């Protein structure tokens, strides 16, 4: 392992094998990094990077290679809580035309193909709350998402989403 923030390449799906390009032409395989040790393999991908059209194949490749849970990152212009690799992925995704609505549609299609693989949206409060907490929670639940990680929502403001999560939309 040890790739973490140093990984600046991209995932590519080829014949249901996930290979990662570390950016220097060297490929490493997930099987060599995550041996079966009873771990939960939680994968993160920035939705829309390298393009919205490529995202479904990337998600499918993660499932085909054993992902136990997938975090689908919602790109944002100012990803302050992320390192440089994810910051660049956010900017590439936005430049490629990724939108929250488009990624929710991708999530809905993912859910239809992979009913048993948990999918969690991960992102920032501004895109999540720009149309209102209730509207975001409803859209996320209707898309079949299993949860939300909001990186920059202070604990004292968690009540904004809590009501929608528990009372209206079980997301």
What attributes characterize this protein structure?
disordered N terminus; globular; four-stranded parallel β-sheet; alpha/beta; 171 residues; three-stranded antiparallel β-sheet; 7 helices; 19% strand
Percent in strands: 15-25%
Could you tell me the number of beta strands?
A: 7
Structural class: alpha/beta
CA-CA gap between termini: 32 Å
Can you count the helices? 7
Rounded Rg:
16 Å
Describe the model.
This protein is an alpha/beta fold and 171 residues long. It is 38% helix and 19% strand. It contains seven helices and seven strands. It has helices spanning 30-33, 55-64, 84-95, 100-113, 125-129, 133-142, 159-168, and strands at residues 10-14, 17-21, 27-29, 42-46, 69-73, 119-123, 147-150. The protein has a four-stranded parallel beta sheet with strand order 4-5-6-7. Strands 1-2-3 form a three-stranded antiparallel beta sheet. A hairpin with a 2-residue loop joins strand 1 (10-14) and strand 2 (17-21). Helix 2 (55-64) packs parallel to helix 4 (100-113).
Record the SSE blueprint.
Blueprint: E1 10-14, E2 17-21, E3 27-29, H1 30-33, E4 42-46, H2 55-64, E5 69-73, H3 84-95, H4 100-113, E6 119-123, H5 125-129, H6 133-142, E7 147-150, H7 159-168
Parallel strand pairs: 4-5, 5-6, 6-7
Antiparallel strand pairs: 1-2, 2-3
Helix pairs in contact: 2-4, 6-7
């Amino acid at each position: 392992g040890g790739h973490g923030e140093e990984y600046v390449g991209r995932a590519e799906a080829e014949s249901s094998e996930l290979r990662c390009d570390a950016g220097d032409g060297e490929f490493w395989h997930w099987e060599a990094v995550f041996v079966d040790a009873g771990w939960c393999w939680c994968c993160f991908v920035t939705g829309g990077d390298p393009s919205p059209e490529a995202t479904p194949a990337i998600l499918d490749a993660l499932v085909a290679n054993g992902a136990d849970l997938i975090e689908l990152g919602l790109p944002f212009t100012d990803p302050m809580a992320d390192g440089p690799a994810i910051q660049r992925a956010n900017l590439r995704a936005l430049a490629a035309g990724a939108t929250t609505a488009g990624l929710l549609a991708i999530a809905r299609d993912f859910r239809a193909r992979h009913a048993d693989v948990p999918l969690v949206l991960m992102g920032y409060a501004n895109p999540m709350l720009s149309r209102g907490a209730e509207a975001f929670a409803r859209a996320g639940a209707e898309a079949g998402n299993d949860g939300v990680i909001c990186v920059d929502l202070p604990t004292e403001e968690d009540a904004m989403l809590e009501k929608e999560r528990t009372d209206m939309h079980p997301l």
